[in-house]
Amino acid sequence: MNNFITGLQFLTRIQVAKQSEWSPESFGRSVKYFPLIGAILGIILVLVHHVLADFLPYIGMYLPPHVLAIFLIISNVLLTGGLTCDGFMDTMDGIFSGRSKDRMLEIMKDSRIGANGVMAFVLLAILKWSLIMDIPPQGLPTALFMMPLLGRFAMVVGITVFPYARPDGIGKAFAQYAGKYTLCIATVLTLLFVIPLGKQAIVSLFAVIVVTLLFSNYVKKLIGGLTGDIYGSITEITEIVLLLVFLY
């Protein structure tokens, strides 16, 4: 339970217990629970959607689709504290810098956000907003539930399948102490949620896995492995992939 709480309080802004110590082993052992943490985020997003799309109209307040989509995106960012968004921007700054491997890693570690990161995030946000707005209403709750679920499962794939690029860092703890059965446990947890949701959910799972492997392999060729920032970017990219699947 302590490992689950460690993962929950690191990946989200949901505080359920006060933890004064964050051991590397606890970080690593929390990885197997990432899909479950994603499912919790998904449930909250579905509830937010229910309030905005069903309850507010019931009391006479109607939100246009584009406003509803904005509130859902803001809710997602608030729930995670923008952790994966920050990782995405740092990753885009690094891999699009056109520099050497070591320089890319330095750029990703820099707390300042560059032009590549800002432009990439703006495009990502616009794309996510457009997709959420255009997904058929009957499929949107399922997409909102699965979006953080598969995004965190993709993170597990990156952590367990690919090497870590730095000699240290929080991401190193995830990779080093995850354990050899972590991917199997995370896969089983993910399938328990995905299979009952039908064909479209299963297709999105396969699409997320393929994109995760392709992107992670591309980054590995650039810098020799993945980093904590890249784990976050994997989540953001695969959430877009899932929304694309649910668009049809």
Describe this structure in words.
The chain is mainly alpha-helical and 248 residues long. The chain has one domain. 75% of the residues lie in helices and 0% in strands. It has helices spanning 2-11, 24-30, 34-58, 65-80, 83-95, 101-109, 115-134, 140-161, 170-177, 182-194, 199-223, 228-246. Helix 3 (34-58) packs parallel to helix 10 and helix 5 runs antiparallel to helix 6 (101-109). The longest helix is centred in the first third of the chain and has 25 residues, at 34-58. The radius of gyration is 18 Å and the shape is globular. The termini are far apart. The model has no long low-confidence stretch (mean pLDDT 93).
How would you briefly describe this protein structure?
This is Adenosylcobinamide-GDP ribazoletransferase. The chain is an all-alpha fold. The protein contains 12 helices and no strands.
Total discrete domains? 1
> What is the general shape?
globular
- CA radius of gyration: 18 Å
> What do the pLDDT scores average to?
93
Q: Into which percentage range does the β-strand content fall?
A: under 5%
Number of helices: 12
- Outline the low-pLDDT stretches: none
Order of helices and strands: HHHHHHHHHHHH
The computed structural class is mainly alpha
Major β-sheet profile: none
Distance between the termini: 39 Å
**How many β strands by DSSP?**
0
- Provide the helix percentage: over 70%
Transmembrane segments: 33-52, 67-92, 113-132, 144-165, 177-195, 201-218
Function: Joins adenosylcobinamide-GDP and alpha-ribazole to generate adenosylcobalamin (Ado-cobalamin). Also synthesizes adenosylcobalamin 5'-phosphate from adenosylcobinamide-GDP and alpha-ribazole 5'-phosphate.
GO molecular function, one term: adenosylcobinamide-GDP ribazoletransferase activity
Subcellular location: Cell membrane
